[in-house]
Amino acid sequence: MKLAIAAQLAGCLLVAFSTAQAAGLDCTPQALVPLEKIEARVIVVGEHHGTEQTPAFVGQLVCGLLKMGRPVVLALERDGSEQQALSLYLASDGLATDVQALLATGGWRQSVQDGRNSQAMLALIEQTRRWHRAGQRVGVLAMQMDWSPVLPESEIGKQPWSQADTDYFTAMNDRAMADKVWGTALSYPGYTVVALAGSMHTALGSASRSKQVASPSFSDLLAQRMPVHVVGVSSQGGTAWNLTAEGMGERNVRRGPMFRSDSRIDTEVDLGKITASAPAKKAS
After folding, report:
1. Can you tell me the mean pLDDT for 19-32?
2. In what helix (H) or strand (E) does residue 235 lie, and over which residues does it extend?
3. pLDDT digits (tens, 9 = 90+) for 174-193
């Protein structure tokens, strides 16, 4: 009996210490999202790829949750084959060689860039690494399906396999992301998952999206299984670095919502004027 009481007391002291440690984090939490009122264990944020502001905003969300004593899994729209590299980077010292090792994997090194491999995204991962090394209960999930080449890159065709049948790929991709986030949330019941993905994936209950894409979105699939809280971001216009029909590069972005007008939004946040964030690999 005494041992049980002692173990319980030790557990309470550990939780109290962890909470106090988290409260002293050197970061600024996001004040526009009432995190204390959000009961859902999955918070979804949609974005236009390639801005400085959205990854920074997500970092502030994670900061706020950690300061509240809520452990976090940061789920990113990244190929599952990058999971090992991300986990190794979180455990590293963040030296230049560690950064180069990360950027030598997956989407970071691809010749075609769509804004997901930006300097701002790298900065978000670096911030998460610092929290992790400081003892915070935080991790990163590469939530897309895992595609790892089985032959030399010289054997790969010119057209990415994802473009061979875009509808089928989109369905597979959204399903994989929903499966991974759902599985992670179940596996780590004490953690909140903060998922960042493109607005086409995060649109929830959008009829206009259904007219473009026959398969349900990542958010649609996930919301069928568990409660989710969707954060919609808007801006006062600016620029973003991404991939359009015109090719890769910096583009002007009009002011207004960066989500579909008919999709469910639980909290809307205006990021102000947005600025483009170029690919991290080129910057390095």
Report:
1. 78
2. strand 229-235
3. 999 999 999 999 999 999 99
Rg, C-alpha atoms of the chain? 19
The CATH number fitting domain 32-146+158-283, selected from 3.30.40, 3.30.450, 3.90.20, 3.40.50: 3.40.50
Q: Give this prediction's pTM.
A: 0.90
Provide φ and ψ at 204, rounded to 5°: -115, 120
Residue whose pair of structure tokens reads 């994936």 in the numeric block: 201
- What are the extents of the domains in the chain? 32-146+158-283
Distance CA 204, CA 174 (A): 12
pLDDT (tens digit, 9 = 90+) per residue, 212-258? 999 999 999 999 999 999 999 999 999 999 999 999 999 999 999 99
From the number of C-beta atoms within 10 Å of its C-beta (0-12, 13-18, 19+), residue 59 rates as buried
Burial 162-194 (b: 16+ CB within 10 A, else e): eeeeeeebbbebbebbbbbbbebbeebeebbbb
